[in-house]
Design a protein that fits this description.
It comes from Azospirillum argentinense. With about 140 residues, the protein is mainly alpha-helical. The chain contains 6 helices and 4 strands, in the order ααβαβαβαβα. It starts with a helix and ends with a helix. The structure holds calcium ion (3 copies).
Length: about 140
């Protein structure tokens, strides 16, 4: 897969996951202000940081992304078809391959890449700063 397409896919998956997490996150009326995005970013980070130690490990990241996978996989056949994702058709096709489906291994490979790209100091943890930077990259692409 071309590097550019791959990057686009990683970002789209990350964004999809973030949108879903955000949608699952109850927002209070008081939070619906200019700082709503910052508050939501912080909330998403807290959701991913299962053990609340202030950083998101690869395991925490993967577990939560797999939860997203199961939510997206509406017919529970452990594969994502184009209509189950929010991906552009060409991006979907490039990762799904000949079978036209994204299986869990293909999905985890992408999650792995997204994590490694976000982990800019290579300590195998996403701290708050790295995570927020990832969210901003995804939003501003
Ligand atoms: Ca943690
Ligand atoms: Ca499916
Ligand atoms: Ca790090």
């Amino acid at each position: 897969m071309a590097a550019k397409v791959r990057m686009a896919f990683i970002l789209t998956v990350a964004l999809t996951a973030i949108v879903i997490l955000a949608a699952l996150t109850p927002m209070t009326a008081a939070a619906a202000t200019a700082s709503v995005e910052n508050a939501r970013d912080a909330r998403i980070f807290e959701l991913l940081d299962d053990d609340q130690n202030g950083s998101v490990s690869m395991m925490e990241f993967k577990n939560n992304q797999m939860l997203v996978f199961y939510i997206l996989d509406r017919n529970k056949d452990l594969a994502l078809t184009a209509d189950e994702t929010f991906l552009p058709a060409d991006v979907f096709a490039s990762i799904a391959g000949a079978d036209g489906k994204i299986d869990t291994l293909e999905f985890l490979e992408i999650v792995d890449s997204a994590f490694k790209q976000a982990d800019t100091n290579h300590d195998e943890l996403l701290d708050r700063q790295e995570f927020i930077a990832l969210l901003h990259r995804v939003r501003n692409r």
